[in-house]
Amino acid sequence: MGLAHKTEKSIPKNAGELSETVSDVVFRQIRQDIISGILAPGAKIKLEQAKEHYSISVSSLREILSRLAMENLVLAEGQRGFEVSPASRKELEELADLRTVLETHAVALSFEAGTLEWEGRIVAAHYKLAAAERKLLGGDDSRTVDWVRYDWEFHQAIVSACNSTTLMATLSSVFDRFLRYHMLARSFRGKDVADDHRLLFELALKRDVEAARAVIRRHVQSGVDHVLASGRIN
């Protein structure tokens, strides 16, 4: 299964985290390992090995993997166990289409309802994202992990005033599955993606819905093109 590291124990930082179960922590860890490519597409997940690696019982592990199967990140193979979902051009394009539909809809709702606090979230998120992108463009690949986190935080901030928990949760899941393909491509998209983020930032503060939607469509499609150009997806 190619398990290269031990799961780190998380230390609760606030009261809300005190109720988090071991299963919740392991679910998040396995999910992250799939998205980051540590668990490669098509890899068999051997329950006994995974049990030791993630320090959790087999029964809890089965429940976690079943939850991940509902997100199409894992395939359940009946009595044969589980494997990481394969990567394909077809799924990449389907995820791109779905992300575009969800994000452009959420943008319209968010721009209409956004408050001054919403604008503040966008400013803060873009500041961190732009700083990470400058480092990457300067050749500092060590900031890739930061960029992945800040990229989602920025896009999340843009749509965070949409007032729909279901829409946000669905978009988050699709965004992560789309991100898995970028992690498989193993390269930063360069200046064009940073320019898209800066333009989207400016359009959000102007509440220009149609222009922002056009940027999102182009941004997502250029992501698909980048992944396919890497030659790592069939």
From TrEMBL:
Residues 20-87 form the HTH gntR-type domain. The keyword Mitochondrion does not apply. GO terms for molecular function: DNA binding; DNA-binding transcription factor activity. Keywords: DNA-binding, Transcription, Transcription regulation. InterPro entries: GntR_C (IPR011711), TF_FadR/GntR_C (IPR008920), Tscrpt_reg_HTH_GntR (IPR000524), WH-like_DNA-bd_sf (IPR036388), WH_DNA-bd_sf (IPR036390). Pfam families: FCD, GntR. The keyword Transcription applies. PANTHER family: HTH-TYPE TRANSCRIPTIONAL REPRESSOR GLAR (PTHR43537:SF20), TRANSCRIPTIONAL REGULATOR, GNTR FAMILY (PTHR43537). This is Putative GntR family transcriptional regulator. The lineage of its organism: Bacteria, Pseudomonadati, Pseudomonadota, Alphaproteobacteria, Hyphomicrobiales.
